[in-house]
């Protein structure tokens, strides 16, 4: 008997800003709809573990789409004639999420996004708070500078390897090798310039530092950030969460890609959040209730001595 | 001692042990066979010049001299940063060269012809990670 994942993939046509986008999405489970947003330059495979885990799918209809130009979602017709390089904007990103939810007739879904998907949760809370029942911002904060740089899309540099290597260190060194290198692979497969273009949104077009205090608190926001995330540090998330009404902040011993780099640890960390969402939405949950456990954060630092000899010595190997 | 452990000081002998570990690695040749460069590993005020040919570190020199006629790129950081980077379990913000180089953290400077660095970054990344096995 062959083993199959319970994930089902389909294509839906999403109209956004005057163009039609053939959009790939995968889903599994039933219950409260949960739309999962991948990180910059990646795709919905980052949620494959959650879509295969009964502890998620018993209560949630877990859905992950690939943004246009990512994964199996092709670019729009005429992309080859575009005169400017690809840049994801706040307007397009948020409108696309809205249109995707409309296309699937999702009523007040939960949105869970990581990295840029975590940051766009702030935009959704600011502009569309009535459309969502909860927001889970993984590795999210109000401003993530420094990532929109040319070497990430340069004809003299292997884009896949450079991009994937650039993000590898965002993962915790004790996350399982199998999953860290799978995450690397996702990045190595990105289209040319797509990671960089997404980072236009991440580092340039989104700056919520002077806006997050305006979030009303109508929709709860759960911030979860791993201690090894050097792009969105625990301090950056905590600073953001302090300004956002009706938010919670959880710092855990992981990295920037929690759903794909260490799914077991992620489950422990997010389970109390899912439990709260289920408790707040009992009518829509699926048939089963799971026993969720809690994981604590860990922290530490290293040090070393230093010594420097004098004079020049040379060794031939 | 923290949970991340600690190590003894860097010196030329330590760099040599690391270089020999790099050269005997079984996976690196797959990633580094086109890697030819002369680059500097800066630790505090000491520059170690490394000459790499086809992915092998062929020569290491302590300090720079005019007759070196320069180098292509340099990675410079305090020994405190390299020390954390090279621990078996490096602490957050020191586990990766980009973590240390990011404008938010500013522990590592990447200088010179960064194109060469970017072109060989995967091999560089692998080589540097072997510091944790020295």
TrEMBL record, chain A:
Residues 279-317 are annotated as: Disordered. Residues 304-317 have a biased composition (Basic and acidic residues). One of its GO terms (molecular function) is catalytic activity. One of its GO terms (cellular component) is membrane. Residues 33-145 form the AB hydrolase-1 domain. Residues 290-303 have a biased composition (Polar residues). InterPro entries: AB_hydrolase_1, AB_hydrolase_fold, AB_hydrolase_sf, Epox_hydrolase-like. Signal peptide: none annotated. PANTHER family: HYDROLASE, PUTATIVE (AFU_ORTHOLOGUE AFUA_2G14860)-RELATED, MONOACYLGLYCEROL LIPASE. This is Pimeloyl-ACP methyl ester carboxylesterase. It comes from Roseovarius azorensis.
Automatic annotation (TrEMBL), chain B:
InterPro entries: SCP2_sterol-bd_dom_sf. Gene3D superfamilies: SCP2 sterol-binding domain. This is Uncharacterized protein.
């Amino acid at each position: 008997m062959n083993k199959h994942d319970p994930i089902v993939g389909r294509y839906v046509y999403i109209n956004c800003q005057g163009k039609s986008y053939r959009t790939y999405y995968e889903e599994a489970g039933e219950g409260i709809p949960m739309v999962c947003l991948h990180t910059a330059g990646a795709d919905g495979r980052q949620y494959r573990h959650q879509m295969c885990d009964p502890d998620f799918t018993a209560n949630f209809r877990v859905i992950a789409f690939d943004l246009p130009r990512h994964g199996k979602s092709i670019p729009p017709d005429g992309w080859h004639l575009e005169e400017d390089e690809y840049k994801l904007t706040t307007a397009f990103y948020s409108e696309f999420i809205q249109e995707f939810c409309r296309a699937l007739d999702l009523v007040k879904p939960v949105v869970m996004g990581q990295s840029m998907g975590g940051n766009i949760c702030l935009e959704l809370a600011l502009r569309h708070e009535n459309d969502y029942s909860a927001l889970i911002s993984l590795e999210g904060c109000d401003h993530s500078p420094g990532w929109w740089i040319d070497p990430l899309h340069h004809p003299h540099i292997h884009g896949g390897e450079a991009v994937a290597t650039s993000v590898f260190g965002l993962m915790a060194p004790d996350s399982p090798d199998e999953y860290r290198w799978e995450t690397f692979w996702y990045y190595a497969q990105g289209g040319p310039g797509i990671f960089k273009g997404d980072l236009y949104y991440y580092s340039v077009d989104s700056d919520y530092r002077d806006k997050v205090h305006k979030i009303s608190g109508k929709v709860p926001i759960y911030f979860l950030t791993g201690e090894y995330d050097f792009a969105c540090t625990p301090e950056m998330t905590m600073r953001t969460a302090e300004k956002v009404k009706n938010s919670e902040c959880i710092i855990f011993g992981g990295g920037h890609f929690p759903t794909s780099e260490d799914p077991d640890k992620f489950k422990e960390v997010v389970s109390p959040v899912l439990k709260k969402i289920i408790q707040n939405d009992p009518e829509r949950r699926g048939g089963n209730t799971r026993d969720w456990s809690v994981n604590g954060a860990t922290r530490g630092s290293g040090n070393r001595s230093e010594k420097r000899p004098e004079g020049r010595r040379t060794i031939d190997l | 001692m923290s949970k991340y452990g600690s190590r003894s000081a860097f010196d030329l002998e330590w760099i040599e042990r690391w270089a020999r570990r790099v050269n005997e690695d079984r996976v690196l040749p797959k990633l580094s066979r086109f890697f030819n460069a002369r680059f500097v590993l800066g630790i505090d005020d000491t520059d170690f010049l490394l000459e790499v040919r086809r992915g092998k570190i062929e020569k290491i020199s302590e300090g720079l001299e005019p007759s070196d006629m320069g180098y292509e790129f340099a990675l410079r950081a305090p020994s405190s940063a390299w020390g954390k980077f090279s621990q078996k379990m490096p602490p957050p913000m020191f586990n990766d060269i980009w973590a240390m180089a990011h404008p938010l953290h500013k522990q590592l400077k990447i200088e010179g012809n960064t194109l060469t660095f970017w072109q060989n970054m995967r091999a560089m990344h692998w080589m540097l990670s072997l510091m944790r096995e020295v």
